[in-house]
């Protein structure tokens, strides 16, 4: 039996996330491409973290394959709880020690190269041509498809092949769905990225100066029926968590006048048709979230955006986040970089989503809140830029406008973007502004994020369906499943892979401390019980001294007049 091995080194792009528990489209489309040629081929899927745990086992399996496809590329670097993206030396090592199969490198790293933490591309994609037979600058699933159709003759396949439409992709997406059963998060908190369209409507004006999304060319929308068919296939395999994250702006799916207007008019009817179709295909789904929303769309089309927001809240699940790339609150930087919105417009967009979506849902989180992305190091940035950014965030606090999270990252200059010609100047700017960047980031985490968390998830809030993911010290990190789930630290070790409810106890900069809800007063360690909301030191000591407590009457007598506390406790 012929074998194809897919190694997922993880991806993170402005439109698309593939670091566990998220699974992006690349590996699924590649698997579907293989099976569309020959359903009998043995397709093996590995994550880079699995490979690190058993290099010898992976090498043996991969060397027996006809083709090895490595997917990698972090375009928007972040910190990840669920996995560590593939490193440069690992990308090269794999190609060196695996000699049997045809080796293909795909994903953003093959298109753009390896980027540094803040600045320009550190390693050009051409470097990998010495290690891989095909470094795919086009669509890796299509290249794989043509390789198999040409009887594994890599010389007959162009690495620049790209899809002209969604015809083959729709077929690959359904056939490749069963690759999810090989993912280490399958059966737990696995969440699937769903693609709705390619590129960005702002393609016609060149888009934001730093963004690579528009380099995919004119917008190509994916038919709602095809997306629903993919969801149906995934749902039949047990997937219950979905994110409509692979698009530049969810609100402009099937938008009117796309290709004519920089900010095309939203199409609420098309969006409702898509969401209804997904709900019908996956009636007992647990998560349906989105990712990107262009604040410029909300500003220019407020009534249509209002309708889309209400439709989304009708069919999605709570805890959703509309991530908005505002990038800066400095008007000069906005103009110089062809960004989306001026600061006053940004405020309008953020406030609009906050006011509509802050109602609390069944899982304890607000239904839908905006997220904010800042990009540091853009041309025109000065010390004043950082002051303006802080003033903008202070305005949100002063007016009680809720935000789920603030992302701050240094610009990564990619070869296809307009900033590539200014790469050296930008690296110098990042060096000169490093102290301002660090001070701004500290202020946001220490003052803005902490206070915002206290409003969004106040002490005593109960968060449902939290998944325990990682042990850290004597505690456990856990999160709900979603677009940007809140990180929760539970100050005791709990079995991993469990679904529990927690009650919020204390707030950090970007995370909270929580305890299981309700807490068993006889079994919980003292270090956990002390974090229960409304627990005083005196009551804690009385509980510890009286254990085992045999009845609620006894527990109530120990607690005394503190009736708020009783609702968090159990026997």
TrEMBL record:
It comes from the Archaea. InterPro entries: Elp3/MiaA/NifB-like_rSAM, rSAM, rSAM_sf, RuvA_2-like. Gene3D superfamilies: 3.30.750.200, 3.30.750.210. Residues 186-446 form the Radical SAM core domain. Signal peptide: none annotated. This is Radical SAM protein. It comes from Vulcanisaeta souniana JCM 11219.
């Amino acid at each position: 039996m012929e074998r194809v091995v897919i190694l997922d080194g993880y991806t993170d792009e402005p439109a698309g996330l593939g670091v566990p528990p998220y699974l992006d489209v690349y590996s699924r489309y590649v698997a579907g491409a293989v099976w569309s040629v020959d359903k009998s081929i043995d397709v093996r899927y590995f994550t880079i973290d699995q490979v690190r745990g058993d290099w010898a086992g992976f090498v043996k399996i991969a060397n027996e394959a006809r083709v090895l496809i490595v997917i990698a590329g972090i375009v928007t670097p972040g910190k990840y709880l669920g996995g560590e993206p593939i490193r440069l030396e690992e990308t090269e090592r794999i190609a060196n020690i695996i000699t049997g199969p045809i080796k293909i490198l795909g994903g953003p790293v093959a298109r753009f190269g390896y980027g540094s933490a803040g600045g320009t591309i550190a390693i050009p994609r051409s470097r990998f041509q010495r290690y891989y037979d095909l470094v795919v600058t086009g669509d890796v699933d299509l290249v794989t498809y043509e390789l198999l159709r040409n009887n594994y003759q890599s010389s007959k396949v162009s690495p620049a092949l790209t899809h002209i439409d969604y015809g083959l992709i729709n077929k690959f997406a359904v056939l490749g769905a069963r690759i999810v059963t090989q993912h280490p998060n399958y059966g737990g908190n696995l969440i699937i990225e769903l693609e709705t369209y390619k590129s960005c409507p702002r393609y016609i004006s060149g888009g934001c100066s730093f963004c690579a999304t528009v380099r995919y060319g004119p917008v190509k929308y994916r038919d709602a029926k095809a997306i629903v068919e993919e969801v149906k296939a995934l749902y039949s395999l047990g997937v219950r968590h979905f994110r409509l994250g692979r698009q530049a702006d969810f609100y402009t799916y099937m938008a009117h006048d796309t290709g004519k207007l920089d900010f095309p008019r939203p199409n609420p009817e098309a969006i409702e048709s898509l969401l209804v179709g997904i709900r019908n295909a996956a009636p007992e789904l647990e998560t349906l979230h989105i990712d990107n929303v262009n604040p410029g769309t909300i500003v220019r089309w407020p009534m249509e955006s209002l309708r889309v927001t209400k439709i989304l809240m009708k069919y999605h699940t709570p805890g959703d986040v509309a991530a908005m790339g505002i990038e800066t609150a400095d008007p000069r930087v906005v103009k110089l970089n062809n960004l989306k919105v001026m600061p006053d417009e940004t405020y309008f967009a953020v406030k609009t989503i906050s006011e509509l979506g802050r109602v609390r849902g069944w899982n304890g989180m607000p239904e839908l809140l905006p997220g904010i992305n800042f990009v540091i190091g853009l041309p025109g940035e000065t010390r004043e830029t950082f002051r303006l950014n802080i003033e903008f965030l202070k305005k949100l606090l002063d007016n009680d406008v809720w935000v789920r999270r603030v992302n701050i990252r240094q610009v990564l200059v990619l070869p296809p973007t307009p900033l590539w010609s200014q790469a050296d100047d930008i690296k110098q700017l990042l060096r000169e502004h490093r102290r301002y960047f660090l001070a701004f980031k500290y202020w946001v985490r220490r003052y803005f994020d902490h206070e915002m968390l206290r409003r969004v998830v106040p002490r005593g809030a109960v968060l449902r369906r939290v998944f325990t993911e990682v042990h850290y010290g004597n505690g456990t990190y856990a999160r709900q499943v979603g677009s940007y789930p809140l990180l929760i630290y539970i100050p005791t070790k709990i079995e991993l892979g469990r679904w529990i409810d927690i009650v919020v106890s204390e707030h950090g900069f970007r995370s909270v401390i929580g305890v299981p809800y309700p807490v068993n007063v006889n079994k919980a360690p003292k270090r956990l019980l002390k974090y229960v909301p409304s627990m005083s030191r005196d009551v804690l000591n009385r509980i510890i001294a009286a254990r085992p407590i045999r009845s609620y009457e006894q527990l109530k007598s120990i607690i005394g007049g503190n009736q708020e506390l009783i609702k968090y406790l159990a026997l």
